[in-house]
């Protein structure tokens, strides 16, 4: 279910100074666009922005100055990555398909790690296309069977129904590096050593 | 051996001023956890190496450590008991210019608790104030 967020319309001057003054009062500037309609300059409270981040809400229900459903398409952070400076909201119809970035969750203890391999999570998120109403929070990848020297690609991800992959399926997302002693050995040599 | 450039166009550089915060290299990209600088300063190549050793001795081949800064600035110094003048000194060491927000090191393949302990050991060697950060998941 989409998170409900109260918004106000920004009046008067826009720009850097006005935005800074706004942030000092505990508000965060935002823009709403999409669906070939005009842009709306809005403000959200810092508290509601924190809530969006905490709950990983991709879809929000705007109430107040505008009553629409929107996709949180971009968040701008300060250089230290603590405060949110600006939010981009994209108008969305719950029945339409959207392209979003979804994080990957690696589940299980890999066999390769037990052999002494170094786990390298090279891809933390993938781009997928899915209905706006059913954006997956994360995609789970079981890594229990991954041995040292093996990898898993984006194509190996088990996607929920109605979700298709946009990222190239050959992109390596998980890899277990062989321990130093095993490097350069072929599978036959490893078996012989055992 | 400590990091240093393979080849440079000019052996000596002006000292410069460090203004503003980092707008690039300020997010955790490769690993799961990072060490972020809160101050501006120069981090010597030997310090980066000392930090690497401290971290890798702790993780012991379990996790993967990424060094996100590179010492590409040569710093010159005048030898002791030398009279003033006679031109700029000779290059003494290499340093990385760090702005507030720069991610110095990243660690992947370890638990959060392990990463915190590891970076605490590493942070004590650094000339800047740092904080522990996690990869942004939104």
TrEMBL record, chain A:
The keyword RNA-binding applies. InterPro entries: Rbsml_bL25/Gln-tRNA_synth_N, Ribosomal_bL25/Gln-tRNA_synth, Ribosomal_bL25_b-dom, Ribosomal_bL25_C, Ribosomal_bL25_long, Ribosomal_L25_dom, Ribosomal_uL5_bac-type. Residues 1-20 are annotated as: Disordered. Residues 1-12 have a biased composition (Basic and acidic residues). One of its GO terms (molecular function) is structural constituent of ribosome. Residues 6-89 form the Large ribosomal subunit protein bL25 L25 domain. This is one of the proteins that binds to the 5S RNA in the ribosome where it forms part of the central protuberance. Part of the 50S ribosomal subunit; part of the 5S rRNA/L5/L18/L25 subcomplex. Contacts the 5S rRNA. Binds to the 5S rRNA independently of L5 and L18. This is Large ribosomal subunit protein bL25. It comes from Stieleria bergensis.
Automatic annotation (TrEMBL), chain B:
This is Large ribosomal subunit protein uL16. GO terms for molecular function: rRNA binding; structural constituent of ribosome; tRNA binding. The gene is rplP. It comes from the Bacteria. PANTHER family: 50S/60S RIBOSOMAL PROTEIN L16, LARGE RIBOSOMAL SUBUNIT PROTEIN UL16M. CDD domains: Ribosomal_L16_L10e. GO terms for biological process: translation. Binds 23S rRNA and is also seen to make contacts with the A and possibly P site tRNAs. Gene3D superfamilies: Ribosomal protein L10e/L16. GO terms for cellular component: cytosolic large ribosomal subunit. Belongs to the universal ribosomal protein uL16 family. Part of the 50S ribosomal subunit. Keywords: Ribonucleoprotein, Ribosomal protein, RNA-binding, rRNA-binding, tRNA-binding. Residues 1-18 have a biased composition (Basic residues). It comes from Stieleria bergensis.
